[in-house]
């Protein structure tokens, strides 16, 4: 049976595959391209709904662009839509970084292949820049929001203020201003409307919350239990089979911990990961983190995919009883699993409650304040 919005699952798969293929440019470019395709071209959801979802995803640990894809896919086609969107978003980067990692350990040379990906990245640069300008213009619909974005950028780039504090202050500004009766953080404030995209509350999905996206306590508890199991049962199995002190057990536990503390994008965690990987665990030699970062920077997908390279190298150097290349491949896949599985938990469990906030003016104002600061944040991440 076709969904009320008329977008079939097959059509959605083709759209999400296109989004994945163009997912260069870090979170700024990825979010902007998603906006262009989903809001402007496909008109699945409206402007306000896209920015509302983006605000929530920015609050979460992990890659906000991939979580935004999960959120929109879930809105459109329930859980399977979220799995499709989130899985396709990660797949090109997973395959590309894995291939480059194989070449790195077998040949010691990845420059030629990186050059190919760099050429692809350059080819979509114009699309990324155009899309970023569009989403920035619409998110910053008046001078107050522009000011908040500038302050957010300066706070991170110039003053090195912690990311959670920047987001918290932005939310407080939006909440207090809206509570006081100001409309500067209201949906559509500034008069820009939807432009070529769907109107603020419109889109093929419509302004109403779909039945599957309405919060229920029992469903939330069941969802949390299910996705905690999806995420942590493999970790428990790996630790049980290999031991907590073996490379695979350490990889599973360390990157599971990183999955819940990587607020503010990949760069916020990379220095800590690099130090631990070199000095604590011996997974990398000095300088190899930069090689992995180069792989992630020039391939599609979230920058946090560099963690796959770290897990790959850790298992390559301590494969246990497995052949080194097989052990390294499993180490990289294990790292990717524990990095991205929690993203589905945050969206599937929290999404319905965030959808419910669309009817609360003050809390929507807080999220709008976050959205304004997000423009400065994602630019800083590049």
Summarize the structure.
The protein has 382 residues and is mostly helical. The protein has 2 domains: 9-206 and 353-381, no CATH class; 218-343.
**Share of helix among residues?**
over 70%
Calculate the mean pLDDT score and round it: 81
Number of helices: 15
Secondary-structure class: mainly alpha
Inertia-based shape = globular
Taking pLDDT < 50 over at least 5 consecutive residues as the criterion, the unreliable ranges are 190-200
Rg over C-alpha atoms, rounded to the nearest angstrom:
21 Å
- The span between the termini is 42 Å
Strand content: under 5%
> Which sheet architecture does the biggest sheet show?
none
Tell me the series of helices and strands, N- to C-terminal. HHHHHHHHHHHHHHH
Number of domains: 2
Please count the beta strands (DSSP E, at least 2 residues each).
0
How is this structure best described in words?
This protein is mainly alpha-helical and 382 residues long. It has two domains: 9-206 and 353-381, no CATH class; 218-343. It has helices spanning 9-21, 26-41, 47-59, 64-106, 111-123, 125-139, 143-157, 163-179, 217-242, 247-258, 267-280, 288-298, 306-317, 324-356, 361-381. α8 packs antiparallel against α15 (361-381) and α9 packs antiparallel against α14 (324-356). The radius of gyration is 21 Å and the shape is globular. Residues 190-200 have low confidence and may be disordered.
